[in-house]
Amino acid sequence: MAASTSQHALISIKPAAPAASFSCGKRAGNARFVSATGCCPGSRKFGLVCAANSQSSVIEPVHLPSSPESGSTPKKSGESALILIRHGESLWNEKNLFTGCVDVPLTPKGVNEAIEAGKRICNIPVDVIYTSSLIRAQMTAMLAMMQHRRKKVPIIVHSESERAHQWSQVYSEETKKQSIPVVTAWQLNERMYGELQGLNKQETADRFGKDQVHEWRRSYDIPPPNGESLEMCAERAVSYFKDQIVPQLVAGKHVMIAAHGNSLRSIIMHLDKLTSQEVISLELSTGIPMLYIFKEGKFIRRGSPAGPSEAGVYAYTKKLAQYRQKLDGM
Amino acid sequence: MTAAAATAHHAIVSTRSTRLWNAKNSRFDKNVCLVSVGSCCPGNRKLGLLCASGSQSSVTEPVQQPSNGKGDHSPKKSKESSLILIRHGESMWNEKNLFTGCVDVPLTPKGVQEAIEAGSRIRNLPIDVIYTSSMVRAQMTAMLAMMQHRRKKVPIIMHNESEQAHSWSKIYSEDTKKLSIPVITAWQLNERMYGELQGLNKQETADQFGKEQVHEWRRSYGIPPPNGESLEMCAERAVSYFNDQVVPQLTSGKHVMVAAHANSLRSIIMHLDRLTSQEVISLELSTGIPMLYIFKEGKFVRRGSPVGPSEASVYAYTKNLAQYRQKLDSMVQ
């Protein structure tokens, strides 16, 4: 099937692991998400135009393409896109310090990674953005969206106080329609690293012993002193995802999440039903967005959208092909 | 002020009309604009004096004392701190010509570039603490500007919104803390809140309220738009914050950068330069061009705008800043 072939191209497996075919139903040992070249081999364009009803959440009322009758969308064709982006290099990554929830910004490299990620998602619809309360994830989202073709403006929602809420009100309906709300949530923060935060790897090994540190970094449920285990991180990240984000997807909204290594792994563990063993070895590329399609209550992984210079399928579903065509026609 | 410094001032402030910075009275005579300028000082003079007296301990890291520095003997007279003001660059609503106010919209690629440019101009100036508003366009501007700072300290945003936020953001290494620059976000430094004009374009607004009314809101000092702030109200909370929080830092010798918005910065400059409400209305601040003040003996002395790296001229305004620059030059990166 075309879909499983595309999965092969996307997931690069570590040499030591058993050669495995990765398809939606099975799981390979030790799988890694790494930078992928083409989304699909060859240069097949997915050019089908869907004559069926378009989702009103994908297409703005003012920009309807000629065919659809928006009133009668059969439930079956409802699908939403979920994009996950891990932020790139931070100033403490560069210095090799444990970061956790310390709010350090991106390096120039991290900025470029965000811009690159943006190029890959510029044709994928985004209705709402979720990010953590840390600037490196927020900047990543903003920099990525700078090149989005739909040209909607991401606006950070402020509800930390009554005044913050009042002061950020928008008074034009037209402007609101051209906006993408950005919701910041501590629950999407990086795993909190407790007393390791700010230490370099040598200091930490000296202070606590090399094996102990390895255990904290690689175990699922053993937290560093005053910190979170990956399990604890997953608990609050996945709860938030289920409570806040899934309802958006169910309502047909296209969602982007810009967050961190561990909070995203936690969510992927949930989406792909990974075991704790599998999630420990899951590594997410920075700056390479991951795409899931949410359809009929299920999450289907669609790997990573191709960069603009890569020949390949540029849409994974008829809906996304339509969306792309609409952008082309604007 | 020496003659040289006064000359420097003239060169820095480029005026739209014939109105000039009046160095004697330390005020603007009329309609002045702070705009992008060429060099800080005419000619190719380098301020190469090495100060043999004690260096400020707040400028110099204990581990990085220059050879002749004796940290303890700073005579009060030489104590000074720098204050850098940066206005963020183009936002996505600037580009669309919409009234923004306190709506939290991000920078455009141009605005990102402006922040990076601003950073190249301040990379040799010491910075110990950064203040910014609660809006991402000012925060991003600060972070992007600091990416090129030569001292290579890491700006870290302070979180006090809850007990958890505070405890989760703690740093457990003293060395790391020393190489950090705290970044404090404050709503009091936000842009002027534009009330019911937020999100409207200029045409919509003129249609809805009438052209003259809108002009009055935009250009008056004391008249707020519906449910919004007047410039006076913005100034009240921005300057209070500045006096309560920022000045004590400067007094204790810390070097401060403030990354904020047109109206909150105008308010602060109005206070620093003792402008009248008439003068502040016509004050326009360049985006991406940082403004430098030296705080010394309780007074703010404007030093215009630090030059970009490719411009030949004086690169430091005071002996202390010259020393700081030399220290950076001698540090092995």
Automatic annotation (TrEMBL), chain A:
Top EC class for this record: isomerase
Cellular component terms (Gene Ontology): cytosol
One BP term from GO: canonical glycolysis
Keyword Isomerase applies: yes
Gene3D superfamilies on file: Phosphoglycerate mutase-like (3.40.50.1240)
Binding site for substrate: 86-93, 99-100, 136, 190-193, 201, 217-218, 261-262
Residues marked Transition state stabilizer (site): H260
Superkingdom of source: Eukaryota
Pfam families membership: His_Phos_1 (PF00300)
EC annotation from Swiss-Prot or TrEMBL: 5.4.2.11
Catalytic residues of the enzyme: H87, E190
InterPro entries for the chain: His_Pase_superF_clade-1, His_PPase_superfam, PG/BPGM_mutase_AS, Phosphogly_mut1
Stretches of the chain forming a coiled coil according to its record: none
Family: Belongs to the phosphoglycerate mutase family. BPG-dependent PGAM subfamily.
Name by which UniProt lists this protein: phosphoglycerate mutase (2,3-diphosphoglycerate-dependent)
Biological source species: Brachypodium distachyon (Purple false brome)
Gene encoding the protein: LOC100827073
UniProtKB/TrEMBL annotation, chain B:
Site (Transition state stabilizer): H261
PROSITE patterns: PG_MUTASE
SMART domains for the chain: PGAM (SM00855)
Catalytic residues in the record: H88, E191
InterPro entries on file: His_Pase_superF_clade-1, His_PPase_superfam, PG/BPGM_mutase_AS, Phosphogly_mut1
Class of enzymatic activity (EC top level): isomerase
Top-level lineage group: Eukaryota
Biased composition (Basic and acidic residues): 70-80
Residues that bind substrate: 87-94, 100-101, 137, 191-194, 202, 218-219
Entry keywords, A to Z: Glycolysis, Isomerase
EC number from the UniProt entry: 5.4.2.11
Region (Disordered): 58-80
Biased composition (Polar residues): 58-68
GO biological process: glycolytic process
GO molecular function: phosphoglycerate mutase activity
Pfam families named in the record: His_Phos_1
NCBIfam families: PRK01112.1 (NF002217)
Family: Belongs to the phosphoglycerate mutase family. BPG-dependent PGAM subfamily.
Protein name: phosphoglycerate mutase (2,3-diphosphoglycerate-dependent)
Gene: LOC100838748
